[in-house]
Write a structure and sequence with these properties.
Oligomer: heterodimer
CATH class of chain A: Alpha Beta
Radius of gyration of chain A: 16 Å
Helix content of chain B: 10-25%
Strand order of the largest sheet of chain B: 1-3-8-9-10
Distance between the termini of chain A: 17 Å
Shape of chain A: globular
Number of helices of chain B: 2
Order of helices and strands of chain B: EEEEEHEHEEEE
CATH class of chain B: Alpha Beta
Structural class of chain B: alpha+beta
Strand content of chain B: 25-35%
Radius of gyration of chain B: 15 Å
Helix content of chain A: 40-55%
Shape of chain B: globular
Number of helices of chain A: 5
Largest sheet of chain A: 7 strands, antiparallel
CATH superfamily of chain A: CheC-like
CATH architecture of chain A: 3-Layer(aba) Sandwich
Structural class of chain A: alpha+beta
CATH architecture of chain B: 2-Layer Sandwich
Chain lengths: 205, 161
């Protein structure tokens, strides 16, 4: 089993394109939920050594809201959505129809709302992936943590270490123009899954 | 006071001169602070996994509880620490994401804590203080001049071990 994968430029482009379309769907869902335009970009897609995942973020002590869920079915993986503290609070304000900036602590309902955002984003991404590849993918119930970014991420590194040396990371930013909400989506596909997706896309050679 | 030296994930650091060593943003990872009071020689490791069997990639011993602790002690003894006088303080091993349903198999954080404790016990190194488990991330700061360990949580609260 290959746990270290060299992708051609062409294959990487294909994955980026799927990422773009999937995230486009996800952004649409979120736009509907918030009744305002949300944009998403796929600025970064690559394989990273698992131990260096937290290096993507400069300050591992920065506060984030993390929504975590697992993907199963024809391909397997884990997804972590990260919203920096201020963005998480602003997002909760928007969803709950409060004035942005009025929240300083996430209530239970705010937390549920953020988990729902995670559900919707990942759900629409997986639907897009399914449209493209025919792969059937399910998502687990989301979980939420609000803490330092290093702390929120390290169990992922621990779990992925036993099955892979490198992880396919799709880092996406979502941006809501007036309120500067930023978020990151990190996909960690288990070994074999990226090849499966490439094969389903017809770019495995 | 010296600039703190960050001990990054899956690495360790040993010092002979007074320093502040820090493991930032520990979640399920475990920070291990070793100290030999007489010489002031100290070490800190940012442990990722219990042992090699939990990792596909085995080239870096500093990420495993068993290997990292041994390595740290070897390095400390080499620069003058007395092995039988080394003591430990540990922190981390949290479960950051809690599911509403029944709890899963032994969690990776718990597993790390057990592995660290097991190794320290094997080597007869007493654990003077610990702050492990729970559901919150920690930053662990180790002042090697005094042996004092400070634990900072995300909400800025602090406690001393």
């Amino acid at each position: 089993m290959a746990n270290k994968i060299a992708l051609s430029k062409f294959q990487l482009d294909a994955l980026v394109e799927v990422g773009n379309i999937g995230m486009g769907h996800a952004a649409n869902s979120l736009s509907k939920m918030l009744s305002r335009k949300v944009q998403m970009t796929v600025p970064y897609i690559n394989f990273l050594p698992v131990e260096r995942l937290t290096d993507m973020f400069g300050n591992v002590e920065a506060l984030v809201a993390g929504v975590y869920l697992e993907i199963s079915g024809d391909a397997r993986g884990k997804v972590l959505l990260l919203f920096p503290r201020d963005s998480a609070l602003a997002l909760a304000d928007l969803i709950m129809s409060r004035e942005v900036g009025s929240t300083t602590i996430l209530s239970q309902i705010d937390q549920s709302a953020l988990m729902e955002v995670g559900n919707i984003l990942i759900g629409s991404y997986l639907t897009a992936l399914n449209d493209f590849t025919g792969l059937k993918l399910r998502q687990s119930v989301p979980k939420l943590a609000f803490d330092m970014i290093g702390a929120v991420m390290d169990f992922l590194i621990i779990e992925i270490s036993s099955v892979a040396e490198e992880a396919l990371v799709i880092e996406t930013q979502l941006q809501e123009p007036s309120n500067k909400i930023k978020g990151y989506v990190i996909f960690l596909f288990d070994p074999g899954s990226p090849e499966l997706i490439l094969k389903a896309l017809g770019v495995d050679k | 006071m010296e600039e703190p030296i960050t001990v990054r994930i899956a690495t360790l650091k040993v010092v002979s001169d007074p320093a502040v060593l820090v493991c930032r943003g520990l979640g399920s990872c475990v920070g291990v602070a070793l100290w030999e009071k007489g010489s002031g020689i100290a070490g800190m490791a940012h442990i990722l996994l219990p042992s090699e069997e939990f990792s596909l990639k085995k080239d870096n011993p500093e990420k495993f509880a068993d290997k990292a602790i041994e390595l740290m002690i070897d390095q400390m003894v080499k620069i003058g620490a007395i092995k039988s006088k080394i003591t430990a303080k540990i922190a981390g091993g949290a479960r950051m994401f809690i599911s509403a349903g029944p709890s899963e198999r032994v969690h990776v954080g718990e597993r790390n804590v057990q592995a660290v404790k097991h190794k320290l016990e094997d080597l007869n190194i007493p654990i003077l203080a610990e702050d492990v488990g729970g559901t919150r991330g920690r930053t662990m700061e180790f002042e090697t001049a005094s042996g004092k360990v400070k634990i900072f949580l995300a909400d800025q609260t602090m406690k001393i071990l």
